[in-house]
Amino acid sequence: MNYLYLIKIELENNTIYKVGVAQNVPARIAHMRKQTNRPCEIVFTWEFQGKYGHALKNYMVEAQAQHYLKDVQFPMWEHFPNFGGKTECFDCSLAKALSAIANA
User: Fold this and answer.
1) Is the pLDDT confidence value at 53 over 80?
2) 95: Cβ contacts below 8 Å, ≥ 6 apart
3) How many helices (H) and strands (E) does the chain have?
4) Higher pLDDT residue, 58 or 93?
5) DSSP conformation letters of 15-63
6) Do residues 21 and 30 lie in contact, with contact meaning Cβ atoms separated by under 8 Å?
7) pLDDT band (50, 70, 90) for residue 48
8) In Å, how far are 56, 57, 79 from 83, measured between CA atoms?
9) By the number of CB atoms within 10 A of the CB, which of 68, 76, 79, 103 ranks highest?
10) Residue 50, Cβ neighbours under 10 Å: how many?
11) Residues 26, 32, 35, 39: is their CA dihedral positive or negative?
12) CA angle (34, 43, 61) in 5-degree steps
């Protein structure tokens, strides 16, 4: 089972949010902590069953939420070039991240 997740990453000057999909969210967050050496925390996880067309629902919701947040994409690649999912990070409020997921 894959889960959609929202993870908070504490950087030195701000908090960013990552929207992604993983089978093992605790393992994913442990890997993120190693990659960034920064505090990371699971905010929420969601389990979606089924598909929309040929795609799993969790991937469709992830893609749509990331599209809604594209104007606040955080350039993670500049800070952590080897970070997995570096295009999935956003400099926004928790409310905005949750709203994007809810609308997706």
Assistant:
1) no
2) none
3) 4, 6
4) 93
5) EEEEEEEES-HHHHHHHHHHHH-S-EEEEEEEE--SEETTEEHHHHHHH
6) no
7) confident
8) 24, 25, 9
9) 76
10) 7
11) negative
12) 100
Given a contact cutoff of 8 angstroms between Cβ atoms, the answer to whether 43 and 17 are in contact is: yes
Using DSSP bridges, classify how beta strands 40-47 and 3-10 pair: parallel, antiparallel or unpaired.
antiparallel
> Residue 30 is which amino acid?
A
Q: Which residue has the tokens 């905010």?
A: 43
Q: Which two tokens stand for residue 56?
A: 């799993």
CA angle 6, 12, 13 (to 5 degrees): 85
In this predicted model, which residue has the larger pLDDT, 55 or 17?
17
> How far, in Å, are 15, 22, 57, 79, 88 from residue 12 at the CA level?
8, 26, 34, 11, 19
Buried b (16+ CB within 10 A) or exposed e, 17-41: bbbbbbeebeebbebbeebbeeebe
**For helices 94-103 and 57-68, angle between their N-to-C axes, nearest 10 degrees:** 130
Q: What percent of the chain has pLDDT over 70?
A: 97
Please tell me the pTM assigned to this model: 0.92
